[in-house]
């Protein structure tokens, strides 16, 4: 039961962190000159890819969790895998709006 709680807590916390980075309204200066902020964003993206791989392995019953027979956990694995793909695209697109500004 504790493992399932940790699984869902980390899954939701990762999505919440992606939402925070997208909606924090950091400026171009923040990403240009604040190295810790850039590294936090990079680590978040790597963490999200790692969790997407874990959720994919849960959904497809490959490698990590071969004996998962609970269909609800497999369905949530599919949901979180799709949500993480959207979240990564969302977080990686933070810098690009600054490139499209009119000069």
TrEMBL record:
Q: What are the UniProt keywords, alphabetically? A: Membrane, Transmembrane, Transmembrane helix
Q: Which residues cross the membrane?
A: 6-22, 43-60, 72-95
Q: Is this entry keyworded Transmembrane?
A: yes
Keyword Transmembrane included in the entry's annotation: yes
Name of this chain's protein: Uncharacterized protein
Which classification does the entry list for the species?
A: Bacteria, Pseudomonadati, Pseudomonadota, Gammaproteobacteria, Orbales
